[in-house]
Amino acid sequence: MRNKIKNLQEGINKVIDSEGNTYEGNNLKEMRSKLGNLLDKEEQYWIQQSRVSWLKEGDRNTQFFHARATNRKKKNNIARLKDINGHWRENTTDICMAIREYFQRLFKSNLNSNSTLNLDYIDRCIPGEANDKLLKNFTDNEIKEAFNQMDPRKALGIDGLSGNFFIENWDVVRGDVLKLCHDILRGDKNVDCLNDTTIVLIPKIKELVDMTNFRPIRLYRVVYKIMAKVLANRLKETLPLCISQNQSAFVPERMIHDNILIAHELVHYLHKGFVIKLDISKAYDRVEWTFIEEVMKKMGYANEWVTKIMSCVRSIRYVVKCNSILSETIVPERGLRQGDPLSPFLLLFYMEAFSKLLIHAQTNNILKGIRASINGPRINHLFFADDALLFIRNKKMDVEEIANIMASFSHDSGQEINKDKSMIMFSTKTPEAQKDLFSSMLGMRIVDKLDNYLGLPLPVGRKNHLLSLTSLIGVHAG
């Protein structure tokens, strides 16, 4: 691009210096038009490279964008890193190898292929009519609607084509995009032709030590996102049929404020019980594919539909970009790709299995939970995606049961509950001896008050409760 701009500028200068005539005038006009288009493209390139998402329009190709892009490249450079064994790697090739080893271990399945899953606690909830709607022929309008729902300014995929490219050239690429999406959605073509993904590591802190100091960003093709969004839009319509009321995330007609309001009420009226705030370690990355597949089939989803969804998950291939070098290909055995239109809904099925275990225990009068009033319903858990609150009575048998449920879920699903980051808040009337016993049984620390729940503080004391609840009701009504 630089050479083209330089050559055009030199050509324009020659035309201006030469004797003017009609031909030269027309030629000058055409060259200036080309130069303007090139400068616009260069400006968009540097805006994209600088990743300044809050600046929608540039004021020309300024030093500002160049400085941002240069600074990002310098900031993202990895000088040295500890590998999974705690040894320092300082050579770029060694660092890249250490990163690949980390992701290979992270995406390695922990489930035994010969083991059988006991999902008797999950009932069939998807009727035949819902499956008929899921499997009906896909239309051009569905694909175009999915495309319009996407943010065109997201980072480029592995093919270097952004959403803006497809918007500006839709008349040219429309036929090819629609045909490819239809071929994959019908099953005439494998989705693996679109599913190559680059992982880019964004530092969380200045002094980098190991892989926990990075935020991995997955970059993949826009055409895949369009196709996956079509599937996600259909899948979303069935969620109210199979996702319990205890789960509020990503389900149509359910609000985040519902969870917050209920949690505030239960915590405030907590007299003889305690609250566990669970921390599920790397929930997306540890999702076992076989577990999701079996849960969806148990719920009643048609095998053909489950195959469509799981083909999108199982065909992913990763490479990691480290200091401008791409690693060898990583073939995952588990995990959901964050940013994928399907991933949030698939995580719901994962957490729904946990929810069904807790509901099953409550139905059988084993794990009753707590309530905010004498005649109110008993609740033993609230979920918002993988943000989980558990409400337990101060009884040893309840604590033993919740410990067994968590262990059973972790064993079958492959998820890990991070007990170091999980916390327990007891009611004020709980004896110290009980607190120590239950904390020891669960392996979690005791806190006087919980961290923020879904971005808002949980109440402590009647005055604070009334103030916070009033403000929440105002937000909810708004």
UniProtKB/TrEMBL annotation:
<dbReference type="InterPro" id="IPR000477">
    <property type="entry name" value="RT_dom"/>
</dbReference>
<protein>
    <recommendedName>
        <fullName>Reverse transcriptase domain-containing protein</fullName>
    </recommendedName>
</protein>
<feature type="domain" description="Reverse transcriptase">
    <location>
        <begin position="183"/>
        <end position="458"/>
    </location>
</feature>
<dbReference type="InterPro" id="IPR043502">
    <property type="entry name" value="DNA/RNA_pol_sf"/>
</dbReference>
<dbReference type="Pfam" id="PF00078">
    <property type="entry name" value="RVT_1"/>
</dbReference>
